[in-house]
Amino acid sequence: MIFSKLKMKKIIIQHETQSEKKAFKEREDRYLDDILDLEEKLSYTNPVRLKKAIAAQPKMYDDDLLHNNKLGIHTTDSEETLEDA
Fold this sequence. Notes:
Blueprint: H1 2-42, H2 47-56, H3 58-61, H4 63-66, H5 79-84
């Protein structure tokens, strides 16, 4: 009886783990697709610069937050920004 309960718990945990791994992989794939789209749209020839831009202003690259009216984006002119423009 105890053995069967433990076996069921193990199966449930394995199923939940597989579901979470699948969901994480889907989110990761969407994120990578978004980065590739941004590279194409913003003409970032150097992906490192794009990653720095995303790290500096994550709100600007978050699709859910872009539709928020209270979004405040602070920009600074740097040589890299001017080169990309």
